[in-house]
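User: structure tokens for STAS domain-containing protein, please.
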Amino acid sequence: MDVEVREQDGAAIVTVEGRIDAASAEGLDEALTGVIGRGTKKVLINLEKAVYMSSSGLRVLLAKFKGLKREEGEMALCAPNADVYKVFTLAGVHEVFPIYMSMDEVFVETSPGRGRTIRFDEAD
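Assistant: Done. Predicted tokens:
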């Protein structure tokens, strides 16, 4: 599993590639701990390149989500493939996290001429 972090519009976009399983969940945990430790209050997990999600990965996401909520932060998930989304629905995670089905859904237009920004609500 590889994790890439970039900042945009005051949010951290964390792109995860590969398998998120028992062997790699610690790496995801460390990456998210670093992002949140820098004071980031908005985190978007981009899963478009993630091919698998185990219960270990779910535990990491849920723990970080709960920690951010306590600090009045926000976390959303984006672009899970059909298999990863199925895991989310079976575990009930789709009722906890905002989940956007594509990166295009994540961004909203700001006032004219000001570009786009990331939204953290109204996900399906």
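User: Anything notable?

Assistant: The first strand starts at residue 2 and ends at 8.
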